[in-house]
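Following up on my earlier thread - several people asked me to post the actual chain instead of describing it. Fair enough. Here it is, all 96 residues.
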Amino acid sequence: MDCEHCYELGVKAGVASMMRQTEEHGTKSGLDLKERARLTALDETPEKVKRKPTAANKKYSKAFKKLAPQFKKKNGSWKMNGFKNCSKASHKMCKK
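Reply from S.P.:
Thanks for posting it. Predicted structure:
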């Protein structure tokens, strides 16, 4: 087994050689490693299409926002079962 000093030198030498290899690999392509990683990440993820809210969704959200203050405390947090009750009341209001 190596002494601590020799072990540290060996670890530092290994890290240095690994850094050299990655730098050479990055310069061959003309891009630095961060730029390459960013570009590959962009290529792999397809662009997500955001769904449009339906008419029923718009109606429900309006009703929910209108009824929410009745089911909240003065400090703005929900009362006991307030969110659930507000949701039910909003759905009921949308049926009419």
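Helices lie at 4-29, 33-44, 55-67, 82-95. That should answer part of your original question.
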